[in-house]
Each structure stands twice: as C-alpha cells, then as structure tokens.
Predict the 3D structure of the following.
Amino acid sequence: MAPAGLLALDEKRAITRHLLRSGATISEINAIRKRLSRIKGGRLAGRRTPARVLTLAISDVPGDDRP
C-alpha cells in the first residue's frame, strides 16, 4: 500500500476500484497497479540491496498456475 510519487493512498484505492469494475484482465490491472506503487515490480527487493530477499507468493486468481 505504498503509493508512488505524490499519489495519495485514497487515490490509489479509487483507481484500483475503477480498474476492477472496468472489466480489465488481471494482467492489465497488475500492469497499472505496479506503476502506482513504490514497492511492486521488484522495487521492494531493490530497496533492500545488498540483502538477500526471499519471496513467497500466493495468487488470488483462480487457475493462475504461473511460477
């Protein structure tokens, strides 16, 4: 929930709600949400360099079997 730049958390939530109602695919939604966050898209791990980072991910998308 770490909005990027000058984006307020309430604005980020409103954009996410709009995307969910728009009929966009989960991939499209995630592509946009990644740009709205300071930590998504590998940025969290980048901020922890040189420490090692372990990620455990669980998808909330039925049928998502990507590694």
